[in-house]
Design goal:
2 copies of one chain form a homodimer. Chain A is an alpha+beta fold. The first copy, chain A, has 6 helices and 6 strands, in the order H-H-E-H-H-E-E-E-E-H-E-H. In chain A, the strands form 2 sheets. Chain A has a 3-stranded antiparallel sheet with strand order 1-3-2. In chain A, strands 5-4-6 form a 3-stranded mixed sheet. The N and C termini of chain A lie far apart (40 Å). At the A-B interface, strand 4, helix 5 and strand 6 of A face strand 4, helix 5 and strand 6 of B. The structure holds a DNA duplex.
Chain lengths: 138, 138
DNA sequence: ATAAATGCAAAGGGTTTGCAAAGGC
DNA sequence: GCCTTTGCAAACCCTTTGCATTTAT
């Protein structure tokens, strides 16, 4: 909300609720999940408002968007972690994050060896998490 | 077309044209590009037909789908290459492929260290290709 | 009071589906 | 002829946009 004030933007109840849900979440939420969560906390919000608030948060740099190839985007708070990769469970959808310096270097080397000026990369590993491996059916 | 016969599926002109465009392409085509290319070769096809033909080709294993985060899928023939990564130019859209054994191993190790049974992974490096670096505007 | 945010609903892009017509077998 | 494929259009999902209304400042 400091951001909102700094930019002379109205601090509305909806924006605060949406920002709170998104920026304190431990999970990677979709826009729909944000709307549901905000609503379940007593303050219903329209889909458009969620997307508009997300845009603002993305511009502010407080939020980061992810694409796990599901056909829609997910969002996570931009914590202190500069860059990290994702490990996604193909059964329960759980997402774990990890960081790997070697991978950073490797992508730069590969890019340069082919004449590309590396900008960024995206690695997603799909697998079955420990819990889902135990219970055969979840 | 051998596949079609083997599975007792009708060999239609549309399916052959779509398969020909997709399986002989050097580029990573989108569904729309396939439709355009087929049409430009004189045989107009409906969008639905393109998608249905793509489904068949994906099931057959002759075609592989890719997601470069553009909001739609691209397809490439499943050549002999078992698995490879992608290097995408953020200016002209050119896609280069490369293979890296270390990356394969690395993803397995990372996944296992976190209790995941690795299934697959997806790495896309974004950058600016040599040609686009030369000409400032293209 | 002004200027912006909200919410609804309609529109948009990519993809899928229903069904009558066309076509391979 | 039987059965599948085709093609159109409508439907679908996620997201964006238009516009009247509400709200923060």
């Amino acid at each position: 909300m400091a951001y909102l004030r700094e930019h002379n933007l109205p601090v509305t109840a909806q924006r605060l609720a949406i920002a709170d849900v998104l920026l304190t979440s431990e999970r990677h939420l979709s826009a729909e999940e944000v709307a549901q969560e905000v609503s379940s906390r007593g303050r219903a919000v329209g889909t458009a408002t969620v997307y508009r608030a997300i845009d603002t948060l993305l511009e502010s740099g407080l939020l980061v968007e992810r694409d796990f190839g599901e056909g829609f985007r997910r969002f996570e708070p931009a914590r202190d972690i500069p860059h990290h990769e994702h490990l996604v469970c193909t059964q329960c959808g759980k997402v774990e994050e990890f960081r790997d310096e070697r991978l950073e270097r490797m992508t730069t080397i590969v890019a340069e060896s082919r004449g590309f000026a590396r900008q960024r990369h995206r690695l997603v590993i799909h697998g079955v998490c420990r819990e889902c491996q135990r219970g055969t059916a979840g």
